[in-house]
Structure formats: structure tokens, C-alpha cells
Write a structure and sequence with these properties.
alpha+beta, 572 residues, Immunoglobulin-like, 16 helices, Phosphatidylinositol 3-kinase, Chain A, five-stranded mixed sheet
Length: 572
Amino acid sequence: MSDAPPPPLPSVPSFMMRPEEEEEEVDNNNNNNSKNAIAKNSEKHKRTISVEIRNMLLEPPPMPEPPTPNSRHYDLPELDMKKFTRRAKMTLPGINEDKTKINSKEREKRDSILAFKREKNFVNKILDLFPDPPATKPDPTGWSDASYIIERRKKQESKDQLFRIILNFSRCDIDENDLKKLRVLLPRLDSQELKIVVEKAFKVAAQDAGVKTRAKQRKGKSTGLKLAKKGLHDIFSRGHDNHTCQVSLDMYFVKLTGPGGGEIDVDNDLTKSVFRVVNNGRHKIHFSISTIFSEDTSQEPTATGWYVHPEGWYKVRFKSEDEGSISKVDGGFIVIKKFEAVNVVVEFESKKGDLEIFIPFAVNVAAGPRLLAVVTGRVARSYFGVNPASVPLQELEDGRKIPKILLFLHQYLKESNAFDIVGIFRLAADETEILEVTRLINQDRFKKCNDINCVSTLVKVWFRKLPKQLLSDLSVEDLLRCKTEEESVRLYNNIEPFYRGILLWVLDLMSDVAMNKDKNKMSPANCAIVMGPNLFSTDQNVNPMQALMISQKAVKILEHLINWRMKELTKK
């Protein structure tokens, strides 16, 4: 065999090679080319090596690169990302590419149609629950968004209107229409809401230029308030809060309560409540208190400071607990030093029962804005001191209408054998027990009492507290001229029928007592003496001697009428 090398294999076309073989062939070609290049440039490297060595000795070594977040992996070799990259699938243009796009578009369209159907079914189910859209028909239950927004908007408009009215009130610039609206809106607020809106309005009004101007005018005209250390106009100057008038109350609903925190009793001792007026500003202030609405009380107080109801049902008064804080000049203003407070006492007295007390009042800062607050309370129902026609009545067989409370008391006296007790209607009962029995009777909870004289005393009290006495229709001249029983009966017939029927009930009661005079020592004359003064009252301007004569005449007339009634009952 010959030593000749074997003939070279024919080269394989590149499109028939595997990807790995193609890469190896490319690497071999690159190696051959690099060897030839190295041989050609070896001489050049030899010539320049000495120069490079000299430069390396003279130049400083290069600075290391700054560390990177992955500096701890600096010793790892770089990866050839080509080996980890997926090759793109070779597609023939115009065939597979268009088909892929068409399939994706059809898929998206199909998915969107399915999603729309699902959403449509869901929406239809929701619409089935609400057959009438809120836009076409109001939702009475308030579940729709439209009704909620409308209701919220109405509440906000109501709050804005209330603030505007109270702001005008604080500025002392409110008209009659706004006052009427304020009277209607106030009962709808609670204590916290009233506190927020009043204090905000007062703060705005205290920085108002008009208030400052009025303060300057007041300072120039006043004879007493201008003696304040700082001018009143300085209190209301614009600027920082520490230079502005800062007045507030510790409560804006001042509640009046009776004994034990309950309802207020009629004709009881004065009911009192206390609230505080606080001055948080840097200036001394002067203020006064007055009621607002004429239907609640009179607009001008009496000489003793009482604001009285137009029909005399009740009266209310405001005064400082500390008498030393009252200014002796300029109308008796109450004075509060800076950063101090004053207790104000509210005194209340009622002549009528079953009343809801709601009395708005104003705290008037001198020459400045006003604060708004309300006195509230409840007067208990009472059978005493009221118009007889306003209490429950019972019609008798003869057609007379008598208050049920009188029939109840008469029946209780009968069942307790009170007409056999010595001194009945003459002896007084314990005052404490009278108050307790009165309270129980007003509450319809009276069952019994320890002293029967308590009930007989309350009969006299009932007639004494009437707004109009039974014999008040009789003139003084007729009383003084009456001397006989016939004349007394004639005067009796001249009384108004309703009151005449009640007076006849009194005569029947006194006849029951007088018929047992052997046991109780109460003759018709004695009965007239204890009951007569409660049926007739004289004018306070009458001469005391003349008042005594009139009272004696009324007693004599009652004695004649008791004797006349006893005769009538005996005939029956």
C-alpha cells in the first residue's frame, strides 16, 4: 500500500449540516486564519515588546473598577447567552404567519363574545332585581344612588341654610323671615350640632368688619364700657386668634329639671339650672342675656329681671351667680375677665302644667356678636292651678260637668269617713305630705295618705289656685249689698253656668260636712269660714280694710248658700 494520504472527503453543503457541525466548521476556519495572522505579526510584536515593558514600568497600574451590586460574583465567567436563547421557528412567509395571525384574531373575537354574553347575563339578573331604573321612577326605599345623593344634598343645603341664619343672628343682622325659620330649625338639632354651628358662626362674626365698626361706635357713645382697659374695638380686630373675641358656653341646651331630675312641678319653689360663660380671649368682656321670641316670653324684663310668658304660664330669669361680676354701669352688664368664666343661673317658675319648655335666648356681647342657646324642660301635668275646662270632666245626671279630680277627692273623703273627723277642712296637714300627695295625684298614682286632712286641704288648694275664682263674676257692690239668703241665691243664679255647676258641687260637699256637725264640730258657719276665702279674691290695690269687709261678705254669702242647699237636699 502506498503511503499517500487519503483523498479529502467532499465538503458537505451548509444547508445539509446539523447546527452543531456548522458551528465547528466555522471555528476551525477562524483558527487557521488566526494562526496566519499571528505569524505575520510576530515580528511586529518583537519590535514593540521593549517599548511596552518600558511603559509598564513607568506608568502606574490601572485602578480597579468600582464594586457593583453583584460584585461578589465578579470571578464568574460571562455566560454565552446564545446557547440559552430559543431559536425562532422558521416560517414560510405568507402561509404560517398569516394563519397564526388569523387564528389569534378569531380566538380573541370568540373570547370577547363569550365574555360579553357572560356579562350580559349577569347584568340582566341585576336588572331583574330593579325593574324600574332610578332615573325614571324615584326609589321610595332610598336604596338607589340617585335617592341617596338627593337626600344628602338636601341635608347639606339645610345645614348651609341653618349656618347662614345663625351667622346673621350672631351679626345682629337677621330679618323676621329668618327668625321664623330659626324657630322651626332649632328643635331639630341636638346639643353637639348646635354647639358646632353656633361657635363657628360666632367666630366668623367676631372677625367681621361691621362688628368692629359697631364696637367703635359703641365705645364712643358709651359712658361706662369705654372705661375698659382695651378699647372694645380691639377685641374684634382682625388677625390672630389670640387677639379675637373668644366666648363660648359649656352647654347650649340648658335643661331644667324638677326634684330627682324629673319633670318640673307646678307652683313649686324656683327651679334652677346653671351654665358657664367662658372668656378665652385676651380682653375683658361685658355681656347680657335676653330671650329672643315674643311668643315665648316678653321682650323686656320686669323690674326684677323676669321674662314672663304672654299668658302668664311661666316666667324665666337669668342672673350671675357671682354678684361681684355685675357691672354697676351701662345697664348692669355681666363682666368676665380674660381667661376666666362666670356661672349664670337660670331660674324658672311655672303656673301651668303639662308644658314643653323650649325658650331660645341670646348671650349678647357688648357691641359685638351674639351666642345662641336654649332653655329646655318639661313641666309635669297638673290638676291644680289650671282652667277647670282644660282638665278631664265628668257629666252628672243633672247635666252638670264637674272635673273628675274633684269627684275623686270627694269619693275618697266619703270612703275614709272623713266627715266624722273633728275639724275636717279646718285642720292643716303636713306640708311635706301635701307636696307628695299632689305629685301622686298629678301622676294618677294616688292610693292613700297617712293624714286625711291632706286631702281636705288639697280641695281648698284646688279652688284657691284657679286662674278665675268661682265668685269672681260677682261685683263688689253686689257682695256688699247682699244681706239675706234670698239675695245670696239670686247672686248664685247670676254666675256663669259652668262655674255655677262647680259651685253647687262645693255646696254639696260642705252640706255633707255640716250634716255631721255633731261629730266633726263643723257647722255651716265654720264650713263657710274655711272655704269662703278660696272662692273669692280681692284686687291687690284695694284698701286692706275694704278687702277684709269683702272677704267677710263672701263668707256670709257662702253660709247662706250652704243652708239653702241643705234644705234642698232634705226635701229630696
